[in-house]
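Quick check before the chapter quiz. The format below is the same one you will see on the exam, so make sure you can read both the input and the output lines.
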Amino acid sequence: MKIDDFALAATTNDLTREGRARAAADLVEFRIDKADDPIEQLEAYDGELPIIATNRNQWFGGKAKDTGRLDTLFAASRFDSVAYVDIELETARAKEWLLEEFRANDVRLIISHHDFDSTPEKDVLTAIIDQCASYGDVAKVATYPQDLSDTLTLLQTLHEATQAGIDAAGIAMGETGSHTRVIGHIYGSKLGYAPLLDDESEYAPGQIPLGKLAALVESTRIDGTNIERIEAVEDEATAPSELTLPN
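Here is the expected output.
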């Protein structure tokens, strides 16, 4: 499966909830590191959405133990339902030989880099995206902005990378960067991520629930010079009851 435009992934640790995501998502990001019996879940999976398999340790914002982490991820890649595997740039650098073994299981590779403290300077971020792209099919960067100028750095770098022909995804984490999840697709981002509204696990800071994000993305899609506006959104995207909207 190749992502040609923009795809929204519903993040969850419970594959039985895939049915709740179908109306809004294009894929499911299965957080193996936060899941109970992940291989058994994959064996039982009969959903419609293709899967991104992710298994992060604590250094990359996850809960997996280092021992056996990649073995479990490799086992997951054998399932036909798994279309993508997310591998950290640091892991790809250290174990480049492993990437071909994953590809032999007919999966595409998302090579990701996360900075939970800051946003690198533009030239550094460009180099990171280039490195991710050299190892995988999609280069994903997630940074933490200190201010709005950092979000502009991320979006500009993402836009230039996609204009250069790189399949890239860019996210600014936290409250300050939350809006980049809505408009990243305008700048060429291939992937967006959102948890289901009632998902019990904690994921990256600043995430927007799936139904709400899907509606916001649709409301900002650009077709030529016209911005398409939606007339209605799902319940997840409605305004809070305490918020008064002008007539």
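If your answer matched, good. The chain has ten helices and ten strands.
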